[in-house]
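Marked as duplicate of an earlier ticket. Keeping the data here for the record.
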Amino acid sequence: MKSQSQKRYAVNKRPMKLSTLTTLMMTAVIFTVLLCVHLLYFIQIDNFAQSHLKDKAMAVARTVADSP
């Protein structure tokens, strides 16, 4: 059985306004998109840095191998 306060809360509870729901949904979508873009950007930068470091290491190795 529901207590008196639970019944009163259920009666007084109003649904959210459409503008509030729209704002919350837009915020969630923007946050999700920004998170995805940030992750993709981080992965791209990481791959670029790793590739650049590998090229530098190969250049140093070639220089050391060619030196007498």
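See parent ticket for discussion. The CA atoms of residues 15 and 21 lie 10 Å apart.
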